[in-house]
Amino acid sequence: MAGLRRRIERLGIAATAALSALMVGFVLCYWLQDYPPLGAAYEQYRIAGQWLDYYLGTNVFRHPYMWQSIATGVLIGVVGPLVGTFLVHRQMALIGETLAHTAFAGVAVGFLAAGTLGWNGSPLLAALVVGILGALGVQWLAERTDAYGDVPIAIMLTGSFAVGTLIVSYGRGQTGISIEDYLFGNLAVVTPSGARLMTALSVAVVAGVALTYKQLLFITFDEQAARVARLNVSAYNTLLVVMTAVVVVGAMQVLGVILVAGMLVVPVAAASQLAGGFRETITLSVLAGQAAIAGGFALSIAAGLPSGGSIVVVAIGIYLAAIALSSRSVARLSTH
């Protein structure tokens, strides 16, 4: 039975990897469709979308913006739980919420700069810069208080959201800006540049975790031993919070600022109910994340509901199902 379960998990991860590669391919083909080979590949994506609409009786997949949203969602379903697994097991789940509010301030800065200074860049770029600065700020505060205590995180959370609300309030009078879609998530918010940004950020996060997996695992389960072993714990802590900020900025397009932390926490919580080790938790959390994205998108499109709320509600449903299937109320994981 255990062998069958492992095979199913491997097939699920292989399917997720293939789907992610397919979505990355679409983003690149859509971006570079003026080049004949990529333009021909882009047409194949469009034909595939038309066939999907035909068989499913929908009018969704023929539109490029929907493919952009799907691509962004699939990548969120990978990198969100991937980074979230480390956060949850380090009892840093609140850091995702904090950096989401910091990114909100960045979006507000981006809109204000566009309206008052004529800046033509994407608000997501401003959110990325501010989010990374916020992550570094949290790390700086944590190192000078009780490492990763709630106080510096709470200060950054409330402070950044306060700054964001002030900018939004000021900006409404100056430029008429509206960022509600970034608060609650909206599939229409995903632009070609936003999809490209999410693709680049996802590749960077996956590569970062792959290259530093052993070190991140070490500091996750025994930070003091890592310090004794002369591992640069501060640098890896900084890397983890920066990757979290990167994931948050990319995910807020679909999930919204208020709900973005859900994709960092809920799939991991569901996986922890069923997994027997840390690696299996990562595997199951990514699969749970993909299921939440697929179910949330379906609910959002069918009922015309906000994408962020739909995805998180489905994720919570998966979590409750995992509890029902598990004989444990609290998972005790090994590092394997």
UniProtKB/TrEMBL annotation:
Keyword field: Membrane, Transmembrane, Transmembrane helix
GO cellular component terms given for this protein: membrane
Keyword Transmembrane helix recorded: yes
Lipid bilayer topology: Multi-pass membrane protein
SUPFAM superfamilies: ABC transporter involved in vitamin B12 uptake, BtuC
Transmembrane segments annotated in the record for this chain: 12-33, 65-87, 99-118, 124-142, 154-173, 193-213, 233-251, 257-275, 282-305, 311-331
InterPro entries: ABC_BtuC-like, ABC_TroCD
UniProt KW Signal keyword: no
CDD domains, sorted: TM_ABC_iron-siderophores_like (cd06550)
Domain of life: Archaea
Predominant cellular place of this UniProt entry's protein: membrane
Location of the protein in the cell: Membrane
Protein name from the UniProt record: Metal ABC transporter permease
Source organism (scientific name): Saliphagus infecundisoli
